[in-house]
Write a structure and sequence with these properties.
It contains 8 helices and 8 strands. It has one domain: Alpha-Beta Barrel (TIM Barrel), CATH 3.20.20. The structure holds zinc ion.
């Protein structure tokens, strides 16, 4: 497992984590949805500031509500692939993993890919990296920390660390909804006050 983790760290150096820019812009990203209520909440919050974002969707959830994927695109957001069933590349055979990503691709039709858990093995990376633009993140909102989530700490960290070009990780699923709802409105208000824009990623 240690060797896998080291190889994964090396792979990440070749892929997108921040987008170097002189513009005061961040790239907000949301993982693991779409799930109905959280989805609407996030969209409405972004609309308050005309912020665009990238939604890394699970294929199985998108298949249940294809209208949500359509709506994201209509409203100017980017859609990314976050696998079909959220496997961990460390724990399943490479062929199974790649098939899962491709299953989601047939529903989502996007070249943006965020591997679940930010994990890839050498074999899965070699099979996928030419076809997809892989996007990790440079700043974790910590909305997925469950019982270790501390609202004030997470907000303070975001305010202290946000830089131009950061790819910021949030979620839009029921499992993390409570934390996302606490954190996102205050962070967006702060970004806006500081003069940041948010854009979706290009594939
Ligand atoms: Zn995920």
């Amino acid at each position: 497992m240690l060797v896998k983790r080291i190889i994964n760290k090396i792979i990440q150096q070749f892929e997108v984590r921040r987008i170097p820019t002189k513009e005061k812009v961040v790239y907000l990203t949301f993982d693991d949805g779409p799930e109905a209520d959280t989805f609407r909440f996030v969209l409405d919050e972004l609309d308050k500031y005309d912020y665009k974002a990238t939604f890394f969707c699970r294929g199985d959830r998108a298949a249940r509500s294809p209208q949500h994927i359509e709506l994201l695109r209509q409203r100017g957001h980017a859609v990314g692939n976050h696998s079909h069933s959220h496997p961990n590349a460390f724990n399943v055979p490479a062929a199974t993993y790649v098939a899962d990503i491709e299953q989601a691709d047939r529903i989502l039709h996007t070249k943006l890919l965020r591997p679940p858990y930010g994990s890839l093995t050498l074999s899965t990376w070699l099979q996928l990296h030419k076809k997809y633009r892989m996007v990790y993140w440079s700043l974790d909102s910590e909305d997925s920390k469950l019982e270790n989530f501390n609202h004030q700490q997470a907000l303070d960290k975001l305010k202290a660390k946000t830089k131009k070009g950061d790819v910021v990780l949030f979620h839009f699923c029921q499992r993390h909804e409570k934390e996302t709802r606490q954190l996102l409105p205050e962070y967006l208000a702060w970004l806006h006050k500081e003069g940041f824009k948010s854009k979706g990623l290009r594939s």
